[in-house]
Structure formats: C-alpha cells, structure tokens
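Recap quiz, item 2
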Amino acid sequence: MTEKTDNVRVRFAPSPTGALHIGGGHTALFNWLWARHNNGKFILRIEDTDLVRSTKEYEQTIMSGMVWLGLDWDEGPDIGGNYGPYRQSERLDIYRDYAEKLVAEGKAYRDGEAIIFKVEPGQDISFKDIVYGQIDVMSDGLREKDSDKLKDIVIIKSDGMPTYNYAVVVDDHSMKITHVIRGEDHISNTPKQILLYRALGWEVPEFAHLPMILGRDKKKLSKRHGATSIYEYRDMGYMPDSMFNFLALLGWSAGDDKEIFTRPEAAELFELSRVTRKAAVFDFDKLNYINQEHLKALDPMVRLSMVKPFWIEAGLQVDKHSDKYLADSLTLMAGRGRTAKEMAEFSDYFVSFEPVKARWNAEGLDKEKLKPFFKALFESPEWKHEKLEEIARSWVSSQEGAKMKDYAMPLRFALTGMKVSPGIFEVAEHMGREECETRLKYYGLL
RNA sequence: GGUCCCAUCGUCCAGAGGCCUAGGACACAGCCCUUUCAAGGCUGCGACGCGGGUUCGAAUCCCGCUGGGACCGCCA
C-alpha cells in the first residue's frame, strides 16, 4: 500500500569533508528511493559551512560516488534548480536575514560575533517519526553536559557561518523539503530544529530516521572496520548494482522473499513505513552473495566491461582477443567468482598463457602416460567439447583401472594452471585447438 | 551524568494477538552431481535477552530489569 503523498521533495545533504562513505550512501539511497517511488524530486545540497574541512574536491568525489551508485538528482549545485543555490556557503545572506529577524523579535541574542537562539524551558518538542514513531521530548531535556543548565542554540558562528541545526532548518524550509530522511544519529537534533521551525513560524516537515550501519563488532562503522568509502568497494570488484541492492536491504525489505532486485524494482516496492528500527551490521558475506547474483545476471558485454579492468590491472594483454571471445569466456565461468575481481582472477588463463606458466609445475606428472592421450585428443576431427569428451571417455575405458580425472585433471592444470575451472573440454574448445596445442607442447605433453 | 532510541537464528530480513512445534536469505556443516569446484541440487544446524502483567490465547500490547547504541560542539 502506498502512502498518500504529493509533490514529495527529499534531499541528501552531505558535508564535503570526505569521500562518500557507506553510511552516506545508504542515506542518499533511501532518499532517492522515496523520491523515485513517489515520482518526487531528489535534491542534492552541499553543507559546506565548515570552512576548514570542506573542499571542492570532496564535493566532486561525493557526486561521482552517487553517480556510480546510480543515484541521480533533480536539483543540485551542478545542475541548478528553482530553489538554489544548493551550496550553503552561497546562501549566507539568507541565514543572516532570518537570524536578524529572530534577534529583532527577541528570540535570539548576540554573544561575541555569534548569534544564539534562546531555549525556553517547559516546551513540548515531541514529534512523530515515520520510522520510529512518537518521540517525546521536553525542552528541559536540552541541557548542557554534566549540568542542569539549559543550553541555548548557536545559530550563527563567530565566523559568520550558520551552524548545522540552523542552516538545515532554513534550507529544508526554503527548498520545500517534505520529508527529512537521515540517519538515526540525528534524532536528538530534531527537537532543536523543531524549536527553530516554530520560532520562524514555519511548518515542520515529516521526519524519517534511518537505522545506523554497524561493523561486525556492532560498533558504528568506521575506518577501523576496513573499507568505508563507496569507491573502495568499486576497486574491490563490487558492482554498483549490487552495492545498491545490498545497501537497500540494510534496514528495509519489501516484506516478501525477494532479495535480488534492480533499482526500478526497488523504487517501485519501497515504503518508508517498512524501514526497520534496529541498527544493521554490514555483512560482507551477504554483499559477496548479492554481487555474485548480479554478476550472473549481467549481459555478457556489460559483464566483460566490469571484469576487464581487473585483467588489465593484473597486467594481462586483453587487447589480443576480441570482446566476443572474452565475454564468452566469462559466460563459460557460469557464476564462478563473487566479485568482478575474483572472476578476473579465476579466468585469467583465457586471456593469457603467462599466469598459467607461473602456476604450473610438473610435480607427480607421468608425461609418458599422458602423451598418447593428448595425441589422441588432437586427432579429433572437430574441436568440439562433446567430441573431445567422447574421445576422452573411450580412452579412459580402454585403459586398465583408469579414471576420467586421471586425464582431465592434468589437462585442466596444463591449460589453466588451476585445479578448479569450468568443464575442461568446454574450456579447451573455447580456447581453440591452436592455443591448447601451444600450451601442451610447451610442457612437453604433446 | 542527562535526554532519546533499539532488542527474533552468528548476520540481514519476515512476523503488525491465534495462520508460529517462528518463515526466507547469507554464512556454516553434511550429502549428491561430477573431469575439478569457486558452478548446480538437496538436507541439516540455528533465535523470539530476562521477569512481571493484560488476554481464553503474546514474538507481537503494557511495566520493570538487563544489554546495546546515538546525541548532549561557534562539526555536520
């Protein structure tokens, strides 16, 4: 069931003080899902009021991270929109004006160069969260740490920049944001913001807080847990479709058993009311599985484009082959490998003989026993796996006590340098008679 | 210390009083297929944190406890 919402406008508002990390991507993703589900607008706003830590480079990195994940926005600093500017550092006059208004009305006061909002005791600043439900708070709860003194809220810093809690209110109001969707760590900021909305005489938007993402040790995800930036996952061989799928499943499910889905499918099914409240642990095993499933489902040429960079990274001469041959090689892999990187590693022998040589050794090989077998194989009128297997089977049955693996495994190892591969006769067919001959001769097996 | 939030298999999700001797997925274990498994098929292991209520009946509602977490910056 779809909640009745019209003209949904949501935003992702990162501060450009680092790359797009898992938590940020998760938040952006849920905002995107809600916007797309409702045919609403997804807005990107840059919160760059921290002069010392914000950089344009990070702003770029965050945007390209979102593009990589497949999260497109409808309004933002790069493409503009009717409610700009979309960079807080370009909206200083707006913050200043409203702050002056609050001062004039006696709701805020100056201290030093800063402007500070007065918090009056005894106010009910409860709110209803779409995900967490009713949250009851009194203004008396806003105390200073280890003190019973009520804490006023700084809205303009001494350097003239607005603070987060103030700017977010001014911007969300002036950008006509209907749903504020953000991490659960913002629940305790919400009452302060509500105080500001009231003082300014503005309507309060809907709030939907999202569960946190934890590391394996159940602590908030951080550098200690290894990869935290979205790009690190790309570099490890995870695909955007899978990251999207995996992240969407952290704190949400459609309620049925469907766990592998595309962006449009997720957007169709997504409901804020179905978001979970419990913090979720980032589970690599599940990510691997989801990535593998997407890797399987990919169009062969698209799959090739995901895997190719990792072959190149390993120094293999990819351009010696046609894309058709390479893509077919991956199709033959039939789902082996969980990441694009793993798939590239598991299939390197299709690209080049070099890695095979590096792995190969003749330990325990009875060359004299093998030679006649390989010779028979190469007498096959057709280099087709059915024919090759047929020859192999009759050869094995003609030898006393011989088993298929006695011949198939040495062949596999000579051709691939691996003890694991797709059916070796299929591999041989795909590699081609010439290449197989080259490899076997190199080892003196033919 | 204060305020707020959370609590179902190891992990991610189902479950919105009887459909639950709690379901699915990942992981793990075992079996099967077989020229190998990193592919495929099957089976198994495994949870409602504890204690009180409410009710004919509670994983689901209420209270307490315990255990986690977030926030309390002129960071966002």
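The two ends of chain A are 68 Å apart (CA to CA).
The longest strand of chain A covers residues 179-183.
End of item.
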